[in-house]
Design a protein that fits this description.
Pfam families: ArgoN. With 58 residues, the chain is low in regular secondary structure. It has no helices and no strands. The protein is extended and about 60 Å long.
Length: 58
Amino acid sequence: TFGGSAGAGASPRRPGIGTVGKPIKLLANYFEVDIPKIDVYHYEVDIKPDKCPRRVNR
């Protein structure tokens, strides 16, 4: 076990976190999305053609 009030599956806290380095401003490509309580599906499809003989790929 480890100290802290984090839930199951959380990583243990690192000692001395935030004590080294300097603060910077960070801009991220992030936005919050409120989704109603419905089923949301995400599909990722990668289609690659069969390799052709070299003479065909001119």
